[in-house]
Fold:
Amino acid sequence: MSIAVIYDNKDPKPWVDALSKHLPVEKIEIYPNIEEYSKVEFVLAWKAKKDDFLKFPNLKAIQSLGASVDHIFSIFEVPENVQVARIVDFRLADDMWEFVLSIILKEMKNISQFRVDQTNKLWRPTKYKHITEISVGILGAGEIGMHVAKKLAAIGFNVSVWSRNRKFEDGIASYCGSEELEIFLSKLDYLVDILPFTKATYHLIDYNFLKKLKKNAFLINVGRGEQVVDEDLIKCLDEGHIKGALLDVFHIEPLPVSHPYWKHPKVQITPHIASITNIESSILQISENFNRMKTGKPLLNLANQKTSF
Amino acid sequence: MSIAVIYDNKDPKPWVDALSKHLPVEKIEIYPNIEEYSKVEFVLAWKAKKDDFLKFPNLKAIQSLGASVDHIFSIFEVPENVQVARIVDFRLADDMWEFVLSIILKEMKNISQFRVDQTNKLWRPTKYKHITEISVGILGAGEIGMHVAKKLAAIGFNVSVWSRNRKFEDGIASYCGSEELEIFLSKLDYLVDILPFTKATYHLIDYNFLKKLKKNAFLINVGRGEQVVDEDLIKCLDEGHIKGALLDVFHIEPLPVSHPYWKHPKVQITPHIASITNIESSILQISENFNRMKTGKPLLNLANQKTSF
Structure:
């Protein structure tokens, strides 16, 4: 039996090293350098390609190397006897809250404008809003979304969430379903997309959706690029309805150099860094999952096609 | 009897309007358009010039239009029968914490670097630190400094303060006096200057002081420009000892266009906006102080030459 690591476009060595430490007797191979595909029962995967998983005839478990599992379900019809697990890491949720907070504060306090003023040697004090005057809406109230919502509310932001099911959490307004989307969007200064990628969320953020936002709202996308119709967002920015957007995720990553986002004056790009899976804090649940698979137990943090949102 | 408003370089009208509402029967004059100087007993002041106060022979009280009073004490030998009050406004302290937090987070998360990368169409994910890994030191533990310290500690930063007297506050390390300055400075990732301007703090932040900071520390000055020896800071930045500086306050404001800070690649300038006195939330204590002066009572938020730090 062996373990395979599929880690698209990135260096798998740190993962392999950490795994070897925790599972010293197991054979760990890096895809596509697999000696015998039939011996692999456990695959660690991040953004495998279509048909990659089909090559493993005795696959029993797929461990996503992040919080999301859409990169597995969207390309692979997972058989019933194959378990899929995602990483649940307090660090991922904390990363997300720290990142979202930094973007909101930077916008609120006009920091970018002062930077431009500095290059022109312009001394122009401007007024700004206070945390208690700002409404933030979180799209998606899963573990990460609710963590961000609670943390933002704790320091004084007016926070609401939109999700499939009603949430009951002190100090956070809960909206659910399409019938409550309009009222949710109409009051926001900042909309933060933390939705997972599912069929229901694909291209959810289109022109009609964006027009429901209050004029001059700001979009932060740390969910998935596939949720945004890029041309529609650009249209809303150009029409002056949306004030600006911070995008950390894209349909194709790295974002192709020809994409109009790069040069759009109202778009800020970060290279998918809002939250990064931390090897140290997640390696234990992975090695535990390997042992569970070996002994036929259900994995930790199981995911299925219907999970979340 | 009348009230005079001295408000250098700024528009005094919003203050006059707000005061008129709260003290509708009083005569309010804007300096230097004063009908009879001998009738003025109460002066609202922000950055008066040397000798301005001397013109009012019957002055009984000076109300600073901000949290600081150095702009009064540094130019005027205040007679014993003249009370000086400063504004204590929860908004000022909240502004300060929000501003300091936005700067620290923006630096921590490499947001400026991503902005530069975007102009070059570069997709370069970089690792960053988490809030719990960051040490922030606050110079000055008065009302505002301690508020900032407590708020930063509450969201997970490692916070220490340096002040004249020992502070006892859960979760905040307290250092005091010159003998504990070196150990305080040696551990910081971010040093935040929130000191008031006194004789003791003038040019406190010089080359020797800055060299005591850990290599690659970041300086945020939201205290007073007079505390920093500009050439020494520039030297430490150029030598690579200090990573960068965000300066909101300067020896002369607006910062003269010839000052090297404007074009220094490691200096970020904001135009003294870290905290701005809020008229709505401070007008009540000012009108109350006027009534106290009239009835011979001690003013709220009294200040004296030895105040704070």
Chain A is about 30% helix and 20% strand. Residues 2-89+277-294 of chain A form a domain with the Rossmann fold fold (CATH 3.40.50.720). The mean pLDDT of chain A is 94. The first strand of chain A starts at residue 2 and ends at 7.
